[in-house]
Write a structure and sequence with these properties.
Elements (H helix, E strand, L loop, with lengths): L1 E3 H4 L11 H10 L3 E8 L7 E12 L6 E7 L10 E5 L9 E5 L4 E2 L3 E2 L3 E3 L2 E3 L2 E2 L17 E2 L9 H4 L4 E7 L10 H12 L21 E3 L5 E10 L9 H9 L7 H13 L3 E5 L7 E5 L5 E3 L5 E3 L5 E5 L2 E5 L3 E2 L9 E2 L6 E2 L4 E8 L1 H10 L5 H8 L6 H16 L2 E10 L7 E4 L2 H6 L5 H11 L2 E3 L3 E5 L10 H12 L19 H15 L3 E2 L5 E2 L1 H6 L24 E2 L4 H13 L5 E8 L21 H9 L6 E8 L1 E3 L8 E2 L2 H15 L4 E4 L5 E13 L2 E11 L1 H7 L6 E6 H6 L16 E10 L4 H12 L3 E10 L8 E10 L8 H19 L2 E2 L3
Parallel strand pairs: 14-17, 30-33
Antiparallel strand pairs: 1-13, 2-13, 3-4, 3-6, 4-5, 6-11, 6-12, 7-8, 9-10, 15-25, 15-26, 16-25, 17-20, 18-19, 20-21, 21-22, 23-24, 27-29, 28-29, 31-32, 33-34, 34-40, 35-36, 37-38, 38-39, 39-40, 41-43, 41-44, 42-43
Length: about 850
């Protein structure tokens, strides 16, 4: 909301020394966000006067039309002689009053004016347009033509109100009343302790039977509708300069007198209005919901198919406007048209003024449904004073009579649904309890009355909020009004005293350890939004009965393409990998820890928790039961080089083994034993997918998968070739953990290393061989590592050689060669019995 300070002073007698910066400070202290204070005309210097065009000479022989003019500027140039000016505009004639800037002046933007020779003539100054003076768009795109009554030689800066300060206020949704000069003036009057001249306090005639007929079929959507009629308007009447300038300063473009007046009153009182050409309305004006298939051409020229939830303004033909959003083209005010032969101007001479109050939710949904935000819808969405409709209609009628020479019809139509006043009951010390400050009853009552509330009672206050504050619905809302008017800056600063003994939970510590471990392994954390579309689950190739296909769908999603909560972390991570790869970062290793969401088998409706007390354990349990299951997962994705090439070596690309190793890293941090075996699931390559399992309460449970993604998934998602990924259920890993990981035992005795190479069938998993070796080697085995896999003619078709390094150590003595060899032989025997392994070379 742009608020000119000069306009604001009409309603509050601010001290003459108060600047826009001073007013900004007061409004910010009262809780309004004033983004900027624009200094209009601050860079305008030198003589700027009213001139009258005496002669115009058309210059020939140039690429564009050029005119050599003489202009009477009175004594402003010091000589009284006509001022000679070269000008390219053509929207003025001899005898017109124009704005002339004389040599020595400086226009906005540092544009200095001086005498200069151009097009074969000396130009001593310039005839100005609105853009050149920084006035904004006036709709003419040409020279400013002033009213004939302006005196030649008069100061144009004063006449055009070029110097002013404009406050740009970012109005929050709960402060809809501040989308008007009336609302902002009320805040200023309260802040300065000055009286307010309320522009809505007008003598308004009561409704009678002679007004324009109106029928409201939906009183919920429209609880008040006022209609007034003005006839005999002069189609040649133009908006006066002061009206145009106020609209421009407020950020609106002047259009025509009738429309400008409705916009002016909307800015002044906050009540959106609409003017209909009475000759284009057929029959009774109605308010109803749309029927399926109805269409309406709005003022922007767009033909719109209406929704049954849309609230409409209609006549006997059908829709003539979207209620609270935009009027229809069939009944708009006609632009004045002048017949070049007769010189007679025709246009709208009779108007019907609509001042109504519409349901905010209905207006908001209609505006979003049709992507049609307007100044009216912006105000109705945030709440409009329903009792201001009659005053706004009267103000509009008065201006039309004054400026357009119209005559107000005696008929007044007012359709209003009965409504009881809203009352709230609060303890007089409730703001004290909320703020922790002793305000006292007198301060609380005084501040609430300044807001506009009616207050009765002593220890228990009965408060009736004003009609322009629909946001005051709760005792805490009233407490906030007292606190903000007393000054947020006056609230004492106190540090909270947390109880001793609180810290991170075991779950939180595990999440942090996992994040640090993956970061230390070269992964970069990439958090993502928890929203997905079901299409990505099809691209993953998930089975139709896969649990991950059951998603929680949001009622009001941020994007229609991602309406559900994620059941896996991979879509977001793979999307981040794709974006980074597309921007030139090809060697990527990303990770994320976050919640996934699975709907419960029995869906429940969450109740509304109270705000005046702590919820009971039963209420919290009921709310928790209505939430989806939200386990925490950890996932990594890799593409490109895992080890860079350089003087130290060739480097290598990331592969499935790196994804499996990331899972092992997570398991180590959790102190859990991870079972890795060949698997097949969804987006992973069936021959390069590891199934990851843990043992919980004696039962083995699948915790996730790791490996290389399927080529079809890579192609569908636009990922780099051979992209790899891993995902684990971190909560399940925590359940399988043995508690806080213990550090390795340090022995002072030497280690005995034995290498063994075993030949097995190609179908035998290396993990099975490793498990057999571990069990056979017994307690003396300290570690076991697979360091080579070999296939070839030397060992036969369908066979592979697995080479392991076994490290033996005793905690209390140095092992002999015989003891280490015996443990190795026992391990080989166990692998032979279980896996059919044969010692290579034997």
């Amino acid at each position: 909301m742009r608020v000119p300070l000069s306009w604001l002073r009409e309603y509050v007698d601010l001290p003459a020394t108060e600047t826009g910066r001073d007013v900004q400070a007061k409004l910010v202290s009262a809780g309004l966000e004033v983004e900027t204070v624009e200094q209009l005309g601050a860079d305008l210097k030198g003589p700027l006067v009213v001139g009258r065009v005496l002669t115009i000479e058309e210059l020939e022989g140039f690429k564009k039309p050029i005119r050599f003019c003489t202009v009477d500027v009175g004594q402003a140039n010091g000589s009284g002689e006509p001022q000679e000016i070269v000008c390219g505009a053509r929207n003025f004639a001899v005898g017109d009053k124009v704005v002339v800037v004389l040599p020595g002046a400086e226009l906005p933007g540092g544009f200095a004016i001086a005498e200069r020779t151009t097009y074969g003539h000396v130009s001593r100054g310039m005839i100005c347009s609105s853009d050149e003076l920084g006035m904004g768009d006036d709709g003419t795109k040409g020279i400013i033509v002033l009213p004939p009554e302006y005196e030649v030689g008069a100061d144009a800066v004063e006449r055009l109100e070029l110097v002013d300060e404009v406050l740009d206020i970012a109005v929050t949704p709960d402060r809809g009343y501040c989308l008007s000069l009336r609302g902002v003036a009320r805040e200023i009057a309260t802040a300065y302790g000055l009286p307010l001249r309320d522009p809505a306090l007008l003598d308004v005639p009561g409704p009678n039977a002679y007004g324009y007929p109106v029928e409201v079929a939906d009183p919920h959507g429209c609880d008040r509708f006022t209609a007034r009629t003005v006839t005999g308007l002069d189609p040649e009447a133009r908006s006066p300069i002061w009206l145009q300038r106020r609209l421009q300063k407020a950020g609106m473009r002047p259009l025509s007198l009738a429309v400008d007046i409705t916009n002016y009153v909307m800015l002044e009182l906050g009540q959106p209005l609409h003017a209909y050409d009475r000759t284009r309305i057929q029959g009774t004006i109605g308010v109803r919901r749309a029927t399926p298939g109805e269409q309406l051409t709005t003022l922007d020229g767009t033909r719109r198919t209406l929704d049954p939830e849309d609230l409409l303004i209609t006549d006997d033909r059908g829709p003539i406007g979207l209620a609270g959003v935009m009027g229809g083209a069939d009944t708009e005010i006609a632009d004045p048209v002048t017949d070049p032969e007769t010189g007679r101007t025709t246009g709208t001479t009779e108007v019907v003024i609509e001042a109504a109050h519409f349901d905010p939710i209905s207006v908001a949904r209609t505006a979003r449904r049709h992507k049609l935000a307007s100044e009216a819808s912006k105000r109705f969405e945030r709440g409009v004073d329903p009792l201001a409709a009659s005053a706004a209609a009267q103000r509009t009628v008065d201006l039309l009579v004054l400026l357009a020479g119209g005559t107000a019809d005696a008929g007044v139509t007012e359709v209003a649904a009965p409504a009881a006043p809203r009352t709230l009951t609060i303890p007089a010390d409730h703001p004290d309890q909320v703020a922790g400050v002793a305000y006292g009853r007198e301060t609380v009552v005084r501040r609430l009355q300044q807001v506009g509330c009616d207050v009765y009672g002593q220890d228990e206050l009965v408060v009736t909020p004003p009609s322009w504050r629909p946001d005051l619905t709760d005792p805490n809302d009233l407490a906030e009004e007292v606190i903000r008017l007393e000054g947020y800056e006056n609230l004492p600063s106190t540090l909270p005293k947390p109880p001793a003994g609180r810290g991170l939970t075991d779950r939180q510590r595990l999440h942090r350890r996992v994040g640090r471990a993956l970061a230390g392994a070269g992964y970069v954390e990439a958090p993502n939004y928890p929203f997905i579309g079901t299409r990505v689950l099809d691209q993953f190739g998930l089975a139709s009965d896969d649990p991950n296909r059951r998603v929680v769908t949001l009622v009001n999603p941020l994007s229609d393409e991602e309406p559900a909560l994620r059941t896996t972390l991979l879509p977001g991570l793979l999307g981040a990998l794709r974006r980074n790869d597309g921007r030139g970062s090809h060697d990527l290793a990303l990770f994320e820890t976050g919640l996934v969401f699975h709907p419960r088998e029995e869906q429940r409706i969450a109740g509304r928790l109270p705000v005046d007390r702590r919820p009971t354990d039963e209420e919290i349990a009921s709310l928790t039961a209505a939430l989806p299951d939200q386990p925490r997962h950890v996932a990594v994705v890799l593409a490109g080089a895992r080890e860079q090439a350089g003087w130290w070596g060739k480097g290598r690309p990331a592969d499935w083994a790196d994804a499996v190793e990331a899972a092992r890293t997570v398991a180590v941090e959790a102190g859990a034993e991870l079972v890795v075996r060949q698997g097949q699931y969804g987006p992973w390559h069936p021959g390069r997918c590891a199934e990851l399992a843990v043992v919980v309460d004696g039962a083995e449970r699948i915790a996730g998968h790791a490996g290389e993604l399927h080529p079809r998934v890579v192609k569908a998602l636009g990922l780099p070739d051979r992209t790899c990924a891993m995902e684990l259920d971190l909560d399940l890993i925590e359940e399988a953990s043995a508690g806080v990981p213990q550090g390795p035992r340090i022995s002072t005795f030497p280690v005995a290393t034995q290498d063994v190479a075993l030949v097995v069938d190609s179908s035998v998993p290396a993990a099975d061989v490793e498990q057999a070796l571990r069990e056979g080697a017994g307690e003396l085995l300290e570690s076991l590592r697979l360091f080579d896999v070999f296939t070839g003619e030397q060992i036969g078709a369908g066979k592979k050689s697995l080479a392991y390094a076994l490290r033996f150590r005793a905690p209390d003595r140095t092992l002999t060669v015989e003891e280490a060899t015996a443990a190795r032989d026992t391990a080989i025997t166990t692998a032979t019995d279980r896996c059919g392994a044969v010692l290579r070379g034997a």
